[in-house]
Write a structure and sequence with these properties.
383 residues, alpha/beta, Rossmann fold, 2 domains, 5-stranded parallel sheet, 5-stranded mixed sheet, 19 strands
């Protein structure tokens, strides 16, 4: 392992104890310029990354949004072709704008699609449920390649395309140990761990910074934010007299997998004027339940959200055939199932950067009188 690779991996896996005060002492205190395009990136909702601007570089600190004390990852973004002094020794240097990147997840890819910069993506893990025509064309033309699946990456292919960096999800089971022999910087994209829809969408700003299109990223997010908050205001305070209860998921392998009441999904339901059935659960991550527990808490819920990849036409009959007990839920009996088929909709490929569209879908279902003319994009009531 060469010195550059060792330095990169040690930085990626080091737990940070550096305080903001200590960083500011090391960094140039003058903020009159930026080393990029002049447009600043200031995260307002995202809790997973922080930026410190200096005259000659930008310090980026990335951490788990769900954990106050967790692994931190540190990078110094410099203008391509420059070699500024004063960069803290525990920060991995990344030249920007980046020219090429490998995306490990659809959520990461969604940022590039939203920014119209798919040509920068030279590698992806899976083409399952890939809808974007630009990405599919790049795959056919060999401009983007498949690098294998999580846990079984093809290092030879990765080295052949030699991207400027690889975006990873370090807290998932991704088999990233296989990348130790690849001399390419690894940057975590932790948007999937944000607890709010706007927090997740705001990672487009970090990608914009890496690409050198900060102004465009800021504009894109401002449009998302304005529409999202406008929709949320329709159900805020006392404007909605009745908030329906909604639950989510299906039985898989004998367990019902849900998320806690402090999760991204619970917040999305709340913003759409509904109550998640586990809203009082203080967990933010996954929750494993048995059928009886779910039924006891959600048997009278008015709505049931299901996202799956069903071959053919999904229906109430098909759902009941999977488990006859499903028919006992009120949401089943009264046709309150909210459904998205990932074989038909670019859910994970586009949804992360379109929270306002998802919100409109849900608000239209929960309170149709507020958005009577809305046409569903991702979620619709199952017929």
């Amino acid at each position: 392992m060469n010195r550059v690779l060792a330095f990169c991996l040690m930085t990626l896996l080091t737990v940070s104890c550096t305080s903001k005060k200590e960083k500011s002492k090391e960094a140039d205190a003058s903020l009159s310029q930026t080393p990029a395009t002049g447009a600043r990136i200031v995260p307002q909702y995202a809790k997973g990354f922080e930026l410190t601007y200096t005259n000659h570089y930008i310090l980026a600190d990335i951490q788990d949004p769900q954990q106050e004390e967790s692994h931190s990852f540190h990078y110094a973004f410099i203008k391509r072709g420059t070699r500024p002094e004063g960069i803290p020794s525990d920060y991995t240097v990344i030249e920007t704008p980046i020219r090429s990147v490998i995306c490990m997840t659809s959520l990461q890819l969604s940022n590039f699609i939203k920014l119209g910069t798919q040509e920068k993506v030279v590698g992806i893990t899976s083409t399952r449920h890939l809808f974007n025509p630009v990405m599919n064309r790049q795959l056919l033309e060999g401009k983007t390649v498949k690098i294998g699946i999580e846990g079984n990456f093809d290092n030879e292919i990765i080295m052949a395309v030699h991207p400027d960096l690889i975006l990873i999800s370090p807290f998932k089971r991704g088999g990233y140990e296989a990348l130790k022999n690849v001399d390419i910087p690894l940057i975590p994209h932790l948007g999937y761990k944000e607890l709010t829809p706007l927090g997740q969408a705001e990672w487009i700003k970090l990608i914009g910074l890496l690409l050198g299109v900060e102004e465009k990223a800021n504009e894109q997010f401002a449009t998302i934010e304005e529409r999202y908050n406008s929709l949320t205001s329709l159900v805020s305070g006392e404007k909605v007299k009745k908030r329906p209860v909604v639950f989510s998921g299906e039985i898989q392998g004998g367990n019902w997998y849900a998320v806690g009441g402090q999760s991204f999904l619970a917040r999305l339901f709340k913003d759409a004027g509904a109550d998640y059935f586990l809203k009082d659960d203080m967990r933010s991550g996954g929750v494993t339940l048995d059928f009886e527990t779910v039924y006891n808490q959600a048997d009278e819920a008015g709505y049931w959200r299901i996202v799956n990849s069903y071959p053919g036409t999904f229906s109430y009959k098909a759902l009941k055939e999977q488990d006859p007990r499903y028919a006992d839920f009120r949401a089943f009996r009264e046709k309150g199932i909210i459904y998205c088929n990932m074989r038909e909709k670019p859910f994970y490929e586009s949804m992360p950067t379109e929270p306002e569209v998802i919100l409109a879908d849900l608000l239209h279902i929960f309170h149709p009188e507020l958005l009577p003319d809305h046409i569903p994009v991702y979620y619709a009531l199952l017929k």
